[in-house]
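ESCALATION

Customer reports they have been waiting on this structure for their group meeting. Please prioritize. Original submission:
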Amino acid sequence: MAYQIDNSQQTGLVNPVLTVENLTTSFRVNGDWKSVVRNMSFSIAPRETVAIVGESGSGKSVTSLSIMRLLPKVSSKIEGRVLLGGKELLSLPEEEMRQVRGNDISMIFQEPMTSLNPIFPIGKQIAEALTVHKDISAADAKAEVIRLLEKVRIPNAKGRFDEYPHQFSGGMRQRVMIAMALASKPKLLIADEPTTALDVTIQGQILDLIKELQDEEGMSVLFITHDMGVVAEIADRTIVMFRGEQVETGATDDIFHRGQHPYTRALLAAVPRLGSMKDRQLPLRFPIIDVKSGEAQPLVEVTDTVAKTKTPILEVRDLTTRFAIRSGIFGRQTGAVHAVEKVSFQLFEGETLSLVGESGCGKSTTGRSVTRLVEPTAGQVMVDGYNVMGLDRTTLRTMRRSIQMVFQDPFASLNPRMSIGSAVMEPYIEHSLGTTAQAREKAADLLTKVGLSPDMMRRYPHEFSGGQRQRIAIARALMLDPKVIVADEAVSALDVSIKAQVCNLLLDLQQSLNLAYLFISHDMAVVERVSHRVAVMYLGEIVEIGPRAAVFENPQHPYTKKLMAAVPVPDPSRRSIKRNLSTDEIKSPVRPAGYVPPVRQYREISEGHLVQID
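Update from on-call: job pushed to the front of the queue and completed.
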């Protein structure tokens, strides 16, 4: 079946801000030109938001970099036409293009920390965007920067003018990048995955902010993302890209409700929707649709795997982890970061307990403290009969066979110089569990289990996609036959369809191997889908814990409600809604030396559903 590109929405645009015609971008590979974006055509009207959506590698970011002419000249070739207000950009001299980039088009990148210079104050960096393109005094530039910082809702803008990027949270750094992009009042803002790495509440604030600034400044927005929930909330029109080509274009409402291309339907099917688990007690696999046929794979129901024994496989009591802050010439302790404060929970065989909360709430430190990758300050941790806190180095190695971790970034946790076969086999060999031949046989079996082929064992990490690398990390974690896996943001960096596949893999492995998961995440919609129980963390403490249905259908703590209110809803009818989320940064967990935390009390709402009393 042939799928037509619907350009009816963009015909008849009155003086579009941006017009792209037959854009084709190629890169030189081994002396030959290989096209990665082919025949892209679209327009953006004044005040309009157009989203380009697709998985990593589909050509979204290359399209935006081609428009901005930021690709290396030696190894790239851009063909077609890019018109900004009638001005052809691809043929402009470089000096004129520099003026266009600063004044007429601005761009926000995915990772603000790599876009900001760590050795200059943020105020100076934003002021530079003004002084380079305008004849403006230093005093006037500073006043304008403070106004911009206030516009992007940074508290105490005047006082933070001289602070450095590392002194800002991820969400606040992204606000700084938006302020910099708006400095010259551009006609077009290109936002390339500006919320992907952010917590759900910060993401909600940034989306609200872009909507407000678009209304105030009257600019157009080209929004690049792989998150269909974000697309629904912000885009007037949507372009779906797949393998370098636009496969469907139309009004966002039409794309969501009447999407024709199988790939469009596959993207939409993979989006977890908050509230979709109502009246369900067990986790549910994600629907997967074949991108060629458009047909959904049969949905296998998850059966109950939770052990009915009263003995938990993991028991944590009053776990406390603090990091000392030292200052002065003698390095005296002047305070401490209270990263985890008297956290208690149990985890049974075959069960998934999710820890949710924003960055800095103590989720990851809890997971690392349980495995003693970080040394806890106090408390008790029992893993499969081991008292973790009292183990020496030798016994600790043995204990870690029972509990393994899967990290957020598999590329960082895999040795780039080691083949994936060697990486998967390494734990088995290090623990002297058998011969090299036995290790190779088991590694091949596990790679098959996680949906990869044993003949891939000779390849290296860079030869795999992000989703495949995460499967390799899961296979490696399974080499020691663990009973507990700590999955630390294991799917948060993945595209929506790959995320669905990896979540399904984790559920399948839980079914077949009776694994217990401590699932650490800030993605509430994914957590609702895969969890048996949920614990909400804030400032190092569990503020609410209980069965997944109880926590999601009857949230009691204000922070739990805030997290749920921030989740993007894949419904275009909500596009004009602003959630008015608080722009306050998460409070600091730093406490002075000698600080004694208050004793917390919990109220039982229903069986197993506890909420902290303020």
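Sent to customer with the following note: The radius of gyration is 26 Å.
Escalation resolved.
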